[in-house]
Design goal:
The structure is a homodimer of 384-residue chains. Chain A is of the alpha/beta class. Chain A folds into two domains: 242 residues, 3-Layer(aba) Sandwich (Rossmann fold); 87 residues. Helix content of chain A is 27%, strand content 20%. In chain A, the strands form three sheets. In chain A, strands 1-2-9-8-3-4-6-5-7 form a nine-stranded mixed β-sheet, sandwiched between helices. A four-stranded antiparallel β-sheet of chain A has the order 10-11-12-13, covered by helices on one side. In chain A, a hairpin with a 2-residue loop joins strand 14 and strand 15. The relative contact order of chain A is 0.11. At the A-B interface, helix 3, strand 5, strand 6, helix 4 and helix 8 of A face helix 2, helix 3, strand 5, strand 6 and helix 4 of B. The structure holds a DNA duplex (19 and 19 nucleotides).
Chain lengths: 384, 384
Amino acid sequence: MSVVRLASARAAAPKPAANTNAKPDWLDTIIKGDCVAALDALPEKSIDVIFADPPYNLQLEGDLHRPDQSKVDAVDDHWDQFESFQAYDAFTRAWLLAARRVLKPNGTIWVIGSYHNIFRVGASLQDIGFWILNDVIWRKTNPMPNFRGRRFQNAHETMIWASRDQNAKGYTFNYEALKASNDDLQMRSDWLFPICNGGERLKKDNGDKVHPTQKPEALLARILMSSTKPGDVVLDPFFGSGTTGAVAKRLGRHFVGIEREQAYIDAAAARIEAVEPVDAATLKLVTSKRAEPRVAFLTLVESGLLQPGAVLTDARKRWEATVQADGSLAHGGEQASIHRMGAKVQGLDACNGWTFWHFESGSGLEPIDALRAEIRKGIAAAGA
Amino acid sequence: MSVVRLASARAAAPKPAANTNAKPDWLDTIIKGDCVAALDALPEKSIDVIFADPPYNLQLEGDLHRPDQSKVDAVDDHWDQFESFQAYDAFTRAWLLAARRVLKPNGTIWVIGSYHNIFRVGASLQDIGFWILNDVIWRKTNPMPNFRGRRFQNAHETMIWASRDQNAKGYTFNYEALKASNDDLQMRSDWLFPICNGGERLKKDNGDKVHPTQKPEALLARILMSSTKPGDVVLDPFFGSGTTGAVAKRLGRHFVGIEREQAYIDAAAARIEAVEPVDAATLKLVTSKRAEPRVAFLTLVESGLLQPGAVLTDARKRWEATVQADGSLAHGGEQASIHRMGAKVQGLDACNGWTFWHFESGSGLEPIDALRAEIRKGIAAAGA
DNA sequence: AGACGACCTGAATCTTGGA
DNA sequence: ATCCAAGATTCAGGTCGTC
């Protein structure tokens, strides 16, 4: 991979190839311009894989503050604003159609989104004729909490992986490599990665983030390692901070980026320039750092290992409490978590409820941690 | 909850309620018939939560309402596919509209699906006016492997949780109970459960499974514990083997099922009949602070817990303010509520005065929230 | 040097009730 | 319907300064 050249959409127009071995001038460049116009200027059937991170169409009303009153830096950029679902659908269809034209017959496309937009994207993909191969969940190790306690913590994003046509069977999927890298188990459709922060996150001189939604390189690495081969051409029509380009170069794939904002282009070009390609064979897939999967006490109740109404005691039977259907413990007219209730009855500040509370098993008193261990045995196969 | 009575859609038609305390005759029954017709026969705004597991195979041509009944000949694959999606969308819109009519204004709906149908369902939900609150991922501990090795192992299903309208803020979400049951961490949008097999899986005499897609009770238990209260009415328009009804009965919720196939109805009715409801006392949810009675700061002064002229400080004694006889705080020549004054001294927009301001008790600095708790204890004793 | 703690931040459709 | 005020609410992890 050579230097990153920047070209306008016009300059990137396809030329009659006098020498078919010549590298197209749009390869390994960032094209500045509107994504549909730029796609239309590329030759058809020239791209192996498309990764797209389109605007999510978040519909934010007021400001959101954390409990400490600090303000959440929201994604309120103009490019994420659409008038209606209809307008968003029109935008989606337009770029998906343009993307499909440049995709090779056996090429595949990845699109990432959240519940705000992913259902519309998925339906448009199907309407246009793409064939969904998988939806893949990016589980975040460190998602932003829900600050007002009115919903579940939004802890994942959804990716759709689709082939160009229902009958395109020749797409690239490195099944064996993925399996070998995953303890000889098939790679599942739920992946666990941290969000992009720390040293990987691009910052301006003033410390502000360069791009509001920079994706982690580990996520792109798994995508490219699973569905491309070395030398393939990867296109990203919403290039942003250039994660796709950086990972493609590192893994020996070619890239094409399309981006409207000059500031993003500049940052991405400098970033990619600094990337050292590695031998793909040496790339290790990121695996979970977490030792033991977290198990909710509620899961023990839901799974029937403990019935609501069951009585738990401490090891010396000095205190007891009743298991509630909601996964709390009741004692003396009050309800709290296993930990809080353990602390409360002892008059302490904190307590590990898993080891404090016991249940009567066939062979005597056992800590509820034994039941957690059973659950964990069942879920070991699912990964952390 | 009484016996499971079976009623036809016609028999379930709403009747003028002579006695508003009478239990509707469709409650805790399985209605046999087409889902849209049966929904249309129920009274509007009568359901608290809907759980729906709609079919997604497209071989239901006869059951789906095609916009154009005429046969299209010589269709190519692409057109045929488009027609199929269109038919599925029409079916989806029809039952979602009927479902929305019977939902209470603050009711919510859960729909589960896979990548085959969930994008269409999600887009239809949004188009109709439902407001998505979360998408929740059911991660399977033991999913079926991908036998051909051509895709990722399909290890999850997607659920969409939505309110009836964008502005319906009063929906039930048992945030505190979920948090208490999850190691005191808020519940995430990715849930881990085994698929339904073993003793829970309904089998025919010949060993065949009764229903192809029986959902695990643990999954429904989490759904109902998170978004319903005891006594709520839960409707399942694709009742199948009756998991929704069985879990609702066990957890002290009412159910309504709609199902076309007599074999499923028979199996579900027998299954639900055998369910033992858990003890009502164990169904009590961890209380949220929002649900507790409001106490005016003035009450603390009136009741003598705080004297006018008493000095309050923050936890680190950086600021102080004087209690006024009218229940305000004075500081720097100004008077304001405990909240406004807390915000003012810190230079913030908002502040919870109950936890910010402290008083000197015998055993050190305590938040005035402790005094509010005392008042509330008195209110509870009086039988609020 | 290393431990500790205060502080900051991330794709967010994030309150409720009474006048 | 709108307006206003009460008051409820966060997890993982990185950075940086202090001891």
